[in-house]
Structure formats: structure tokens, C-alpha cells
Amino acid sequence: MNATQRLHDLGQSIWLDNITRDLLGSGTLRRYVEEFSVTGLTSNPTIFDQAITKSTAYDAGIREKRAAGKSGEDLFFELAIEDLAQAADLFRPIHDRTEGVDGWVSLEVSPLLAHDTASTLAAAKRLHARAGRPNLFIKIPGTPEGVPAIEEAIFAGVPINVTLLFSREQYLAAADAYLRGIERRIDAGLNPDVASVASLFISRWDVAVAGSVPDALRNHLGIAVAKRTYKAARELLTAPRWLRAYNAGARPQRLLWASTGTKDPTASDVLYIKALAAPFTVNTMPEATLKALAEHGELGGMLPADGGDSDEVLARFAKAGVDIDALAARLQDEGAKAFVKSWNGLMDVMTSKAAALR
User: Fold this and answer.
1) What number of helices (H) and strands (E) belong to the chain?
2) Does the CA dihedral 351-355-357-358 come out positive or negative?
3) Helix/strand/coil for 256
């Protein structure tokens, strides 16, 4: 039994943070499901930008849809939904077997809408209906403007992957928005069984402070933030307000570890995987990290429910001059801007490829 199977058996869902037409068409994704216990996947504008730029697999689809009058965002979403619908169908048996706990794929709304509540909500509803798959999450960023859209989308019955979360406080705001949407459904007599995950980004913390903190703290910040957030999530899951929702038929929102590929070439390639093993969570991994995990024999201990030494480690970072709250806000803003940059690059690629293939 390899490490991916052991991690799955410990209760953590392993998702792939990637999707390409080549992965689907070659049978590689199916092999990851069978051999590496992969039970879902996530996507984002950067992933699709790289997939379409570096492959000819999309050329025929671009040519066909361009001839039908599609262009820009509409053309992209046609291609993305085709890929994600195929992946969703692959994961559908897992989704059915786990009664909706697992077997999900994710599609992000346009990052240009990250600070526009009304447009984000409208796009989330439209994309979910367009995909026509029950196991497709719509990703909405947990920005201040995104939080109201999360509540409204959940109330509308749209499964949501809350993305671009960097801190305990940002997570708690997203979790509260999710629960408000569920409580409104209960009050309205609607089915409260609407799924959601909350995605906390890990490695970008360590990249942000690299070279500015003592060597003893190197690659410890992301894990400490995750531990503190995990403690908050565990406390929420057993809070009276959440228990009342469960009693009415709601399901818990799961915590998802994102950005778990190691960026420091001197560190273990499974640094964040081993540190963040925890039941009833998701870890979405880049392809290289997934393969590295499958090759490793050891996992290490489970993430402590009480946050372990997170407060102590974060205090050491504060002493070293790191303002956690300010950095979390900066990372979220930078993350939103990075997705916009990738999105604009993706739109340029769509335009140039469409013109070349005409």
C-alpha cells in the first residue's frame, strides 16, 4: 500500500490540482484515481492558461467554437466545462458512493469579478447550471466582496468551493457565510444539503517571508497558520449553531488545503502533505507532489485538533516582525491579482489561437 492510499484510509481526501485534455484523454486521470486514491480535482485560471498554451489538444475545439461565433470568456468556459464535465463523470461513482462528500471537481468564476458581489453570484449560478453536473463546485474567492456572494450562492443551492483563503479569520468569515446561507434555506423550508469546501492556501505564506525571518522559522509559517485554522474548524464543527443545522439535514463544510506544492527546493517535496494529514479534510495537490507522495513510505503524525504548537510558532514570527493579519490581507489581494493576470493571459491566448486557427 502506497502513502496515498494510507492517507486516504486515514480520512483525508486527495484531490488533483490540475486538469488538461491530455490528462483526460490519455487515461492518466483515471489511473490516478485507481492507483493514487485521487477522489476529486480543482482548477483555476492559471491551470487552464498553461493547459491551453502548452497543448494542441484544444485547437480543434477552439476552431469549432470560433466558427460557431464563440469568443473570449464564452469560448473559454465552453472548453473548460467540457473538460470538467468529463472529469465530473469520472468521479461520479465516488460522489454517489460517498453521498456527496467526495468526488468533486471545481470551476472558478472569472477572477475579474473578485470584488463584485452581484456579478460573482450571477456567474456562479449561470456556470453551475451550464455545467449540468451535481458534483461540480463553483469557486468563489473569500474576499470581503466574495463573502456575501458565497452566502447567496449557498442559499440558491449552488455548491461552493471558497478559494483564496489565507488565515483563520478569513476562513471563519467564509464559514459563517456558508452557514448563513444554509440557515436561510432551513428557514425557507428548502433542502439544506448544499456542499461546500473552504480552501486555505499554505505555501504562499512561506514564500512571502523567505529570507526575512530566522532560518529556524523557515517553512514553518504556512503550517502554523493551517494548524490554527484547523483548530478553529474543529471547534466550529461541534458548535451548537452548526449542530442545529446538521439536525435539520445540513452537512459540514470541509476544510481544504490548497497551494501544497513545496516551493523551497531545499525542503521535502511532501513537506505540507505530511504536516497537514487530518481526517475530514481535503488536500488538493499538484501533479508532481501527488507522484512524490506515492513514492514516499512515511506520512508522519496526524494534525492535532487543538492546533498543537501553532500559537507558539506564530508568536515567534510576530517577534521576528511578521504581522500575520496584514500579511494575510496582502496575500489574498496578491492572489486575486495573480489570477486576474493569468486570466488576461488566457484571454490573449484564446484570441491569438482562434485567429491562427481560423
Assistant:
1) 16, 8
2) positive
3) strand
Angle of CA points 8, 10, 11, to nearest 5°: 70
Of 297, 168, 170, which is closest to residue 228 (Cα–Cα)? 168
pTM over 0.90: yes
Residue count of the chain: 358
**Both ends of the chain: CA-CA distance in Å?**
50
Q: Which of 70, 139, 231, 353 is catalytic?
A: 139
pLDDT digits (tens, 9 = 90+) for 212-244: 999 999 999 999 999 999 999 999 999 999 999
The residue behind cell 487530518 is: 278
Chain segment 110-158, per-residue pLDDT in tens: 999 988 899 999 999 999 999 999 999 999 999 999 999 999 999 999 9
Contact 32, 14 (CB under 8 A): no
| Whole-angstrom Cα Rg for the chain | 20
Task: For residue 139, indicate whether it is catalytic.
Answer: yes
C-alpha cell at 304: 492535532
Query: pLDDT tens digits for 237-287?
Result: 999 999 999 999 999 999 999 999 999 999 999 999 999 999 999 999 999
Give the whole-angstrom CA distance, residue 75 versus residue 61.
9
CA distance 232 to 305: 9
Q: Amino acid letter at 23?
A: L
pLDDT value at residue 129:
97
